[in-house]
Amino acid sequence: MDYTFSLTVANFSHFHMGRRLDLRMRELRKIKIEVDSPYSDFFDITWDEYDLNGYIAAKEKAHEICEQHSIKLMLLK
Question: From CA 5, how far away is CA 10, in angstroms rounded?
Fold first, then answer.
């Protein structure tokens, strides 16, 4: 029998990450996840809040990289 410690992480998926949700996440800057009954019985932690500043910063950095790459391509032509 395996007695090593383990951590089970729930994966919440099957939602479309569209422009509307992206804009809303930028506006709110924080998200709270809650698991309601009867499913909350399966979790030790039934809610948590997440700061979205890292998400926003990553999106902005990705946009900068794309712009820089586009400028380099235009200069090479």
Answer: 17
Can you spell out the DSSP letters for 44-58?
S--EEEEE-HHHHHH
Task: Kindly report the number of other CB atoms within 10 A of residue 7's CB atom.
Answer: 4
Averaged pLDDT, groups of 10, the chain, 77 residues long: 60 72 83 87 88 87 89 73
Task: Give the per-residue pLDDT at 22.
Answer: 80
pLDDT at 64: 92
What is the model's pTM? 0.51
Q: What is the dihedral of CA 62, 63, 69, 70, to 10 degrees?
A: 160
CA distance 19 to 42: 32
d(CA 17, CA 22): 7
